[in-house]
Amino acid sequence: YDEELIIGCRDAGIIGFVGDGAQTYLYKTGVEAIATGGGHGASIFKPRKEQADIIKRLKEAEIAGARFAGVDIDGAAFLTFEMLGQPVSPKSAEKLRELRESVGIPFIVKGVMSEDDAILSVDAGADAIIVSNHGGRITDNHPSTFSVLPDIVKAVKGRIKIVVDGGLRTGEDVFKAIALGADVAMIGRPFSVAVMGGGREGVKILVEKYMKEFRKIMLLTGCRSVSEINPKIIINKI
Is 134 a catalytic residue? Predict the structure, then answer.
């Protein structure tokens, strides 16, 4: 699965992200896929309680040639990890800085949902944040990522790259993410379906669909380049 995803994303001209799991070996398939794909991918690891466990994984991703690597701080209360002997914990800015300084590739903090956490990520030396509510699976009362994105953009835009995920399903959704101030948009579940249904070719077909939709809305809004996309173009009543 990881190899088809990474190579499919590479062939489609985008970066594929692979993840981590409660079993100690699961992250390795993603790292191996990145190496097989010539480094055209990125890894996100869970915030294990022991810093050394995270640093080990970050270094393996770096050796595999990963473009970026990071940690999803919103996984700090995942009970499945505790059950399988892989305890997780919250990460302070100091601990995030330690992780950041352990590798030479760009470091990402995923799961940022507030201005404070965004600022702390900047202070920790992170290269990018991912505004994410983990697919809405952290709590039953999490806000949407798009509802918090504008305030986060105001707090840290220009000091750190801002990525956003959470329910994006079309090229128009990607357009809206950029208009609200994100530098990059991420999409998750549809890629899982594409990989399972068509492997790397399924990924390519999905990306082509998104790009057609993205170009269409750029044409209809008069944007000649991505840099011309701005908040005035969309109606934001969140």
Answer: yes
Q: Strands of 184-185's sheet, edge to edge?
A: 16-18, 41-45, 68-72, 107-112, 128-131, 161-164, 184-185
Contact 67, 106 (CB under 8 A): yes
| Token pair belonging to 86 | 């892989």
Of 76, 90, 88, 84, nearest to 25 (Cα)? 84
Contact between 99 and 51 under an 8 Å Cβ cutoff? The reply is yes
pTM: 0.94
CA–CA distance, 94 with 231 (Å, rounded to integer): 34
Handedness of CA 55, 85, 114, 177 (dihedral sign): positive
Q: pLDDT in tens for each of the 238 residues of the chain?
A: 999 999 999 999 999 999 998 888 889 999 999 999 999 999 999 999 999 999 999 999 999 999 999 999 999 888 888 888 889 999 999 999 999 999 999 999 999 999 999 999 999 999 999 999 988 777 788 899 999 999 999 999 999 999 999 999 999 999 999 999 999 999 999 999 999 999 999 999 999 999 999 999 999 999 999 999 999 998 766 5
Q: How far is CA 143 from the centre of its chain?
A: 18
How far apart are the C-alpha atoms of 30 and 155, rounded to whole Å? Answer: 33
Task: Give the bridge partners for 108, in sequence order.
Answer: 70, 128
User: Terminal CA-to-CA distance of the chain, rounded, Å?
Assistant: 36
Q: Which amino acid is at 6?
A: I
Query: In which residue are the tokens 């790397």 written?
Result: 200
Which strand (E) or helix (H) includes residue 117? Answer: helix 115-123
**Candidates 48, 57, 91, 134; catalytic one:** 134
